[in-house]
Structures are given as structure tokens and as C-alpha cells.
Amino acid sequence: MNAARTFIALILAIAGSLASEASIIISEFMAGNNTTVVPNSVPGRFDDWIELYNPGPSEQDMGGWRLTNDPDGSDAWIFPAGTIAPANGYLIIFASGNDNPDSKNNLHANFKLAKSGEYLALMAPDESITSAFGPAGSSYPNQSDDVSYGIHPVTDNVVFFENPTPGAKNNEDGIARVAPLEVSPTRGLYQSAQQITLSTTTPSATIYYTTDGSSPLTNNGSPSAYATAYTSPIRISKTTVIRSAATANNFAPSSWEAHTYLLLDIDNANANGTDSNGLNDPILQQTRPAGYGTFPSGDYNMDQRLTRSTAQSPGHNGLTV
Questions:
Q1: 71, 80, 97 from 66: Cα distances, Å
Q2: In whole angstroms, what is the distance from residue 239 CA to residue 190 CA?
Q3: Model confidence pLDDT, tens digit, residues 143-170
Q4: Cα 255 to chain center, whole Å?
């Protein structure tokens, strides 16, 4: 009977330990650190950082665990033995690409974080994924300078933090961002007029766009003076730059999209330089403003003063080849 109780207690202890380990998560990270000071960091250094949170009642030796920015886990950074994630506490790893402890013995991973978005995951020693941003090989969204990204402490939603808290509980003022825009067709070279559609998966969002290359939103996230609210596909019949972004109440604006569409049709060009759809000059693309002037013609022949000259150069020995 005592042996059975001992066996059951051992199984429960192992299960509790595994559950505690599996609950360790990436709670916050920063991919654009310009001025944010991290506790115990080397003065004057502003490396990107990754914060791990251990909610369990016991500290965990992270030796053999891994951090990676590659969906297939190749070249993952391995925690050295003896690296401790404190009970109900936090562990900071700097993402400097240096892979060596600094003068204050802070750990540095062998990769940097991309502001433009990429994959980030924490892996257990058996290489199973225990926490990830950009699941299934996708990417976390574009990041901003000195704004962190992580788990909201109340809702568990993934949000942005304008008041980062490296090494401490995440703030409750984190805010989600409007989902990235989908633009179809994408930027490129086309030979006919196009209908451009804009969409986002955030249901309450309003999309704004411009066709003159200017910003659709101001610095505070409001529509710019030149922006138009998107309500239906945008028809373009000449070379056009479309910049777009979306806003929603209680959300940070989406990241901006910029797509350039080059429209020309050489095969069907009319004598006046346009095609049957009234598109641009097939060669010059007529993107210069009125009154710009004409393009100078090129002369790629050799100077005839050289090719037809019979004068002898100084030092000529009189021989003719």
C-alpha cells in the first residue's frame, strides 16, 4: 500500500513539474529598442529583448531550452545549463545576435529581432513549441520603436505596450492593433486598368487610402487631409501609388501598405502614346507633371572628330597599320 502511494505521489510530482515547465511563456518582447532601459542592462546599450515568464511555484532550470526566430527551429539558441527562470518571475534574454554574455552576465541570443515581423518561439528541450508569436510559421506584425509586444495580463490577448515593463508584470494598458491589410492585386506591372481591393479581418475597422503617394494617416492615427475612406474597389487606369492603413476604436492603427502599379501596354499603343484603355505613354509612362518639358535625345555614337581625324598623335612613328 505504501509503495502504491509512493508511486502515485511520484507520478503526480512529475506531472506537476512538466505542467509547470510547459507553462513558461514568452510574455513580452521588443524588436525596436532605441531608448528603453532594461534592468541590469549594460549602460548605453539598447539591445532588443525577450521576456520569459514562469508562473509556476518553483524555479525552473532552462538549460537545454531554446529560442528561435526560424519556423523550422534550425540554428536555435540554446539556454546554457544553470539558467534559472525564477518562480512566478521573469527572465530576460537580449536578442543582439552576439551569443555571448555581456559585462553584467546578461544572456544574449544568437539572433536579432526584425521590426518588420518574423517568427519567434520558445522550445522545450525535446524541441516541442511551448510559446510562439507567429504560429504555424507566420510572422508577428510590424513593430514600432520602443513599443513592446506581448500577452495582456488580464485578457491573454496579444497586444502592443507603449509602456514596456521588461522583467515585470505587463501593463494592463496594452492595446491590440488592427489586423494587417490585404491588397489585391498586389503591386507590379500591368497592361490594363485594374480594380484594387483592400480588406482587413478586423470587423470594425475603417480603411483609408491615398493615390498620390502621401500618408493615409497622421502621426496620431487620424485620417490625413488627402485620405479617402475605402468603400469599394479602386479603379486605376494609369501608374498609381496606393498607400493604405486601417483604424478602429480601441485598436492601434494597422501597419501601412504601399503598392505601386505600373500600367503600360506596348502592344496596343495608339499613335498618341496611349492604348485602347487610355493608359500611359508606353515608353515614358507620363508620370512627370505638366510643364515638365521633354526628355533630351541620346547620342551613343563615337565622336566623329576622333573617328574621322587623320592627324597624327605626338610621338607617332609614321607606321600605318
A1: 13, 9, 14
A2: 9
A3: 889 999 999 999 998 999 999 999 999 9
A4: 9
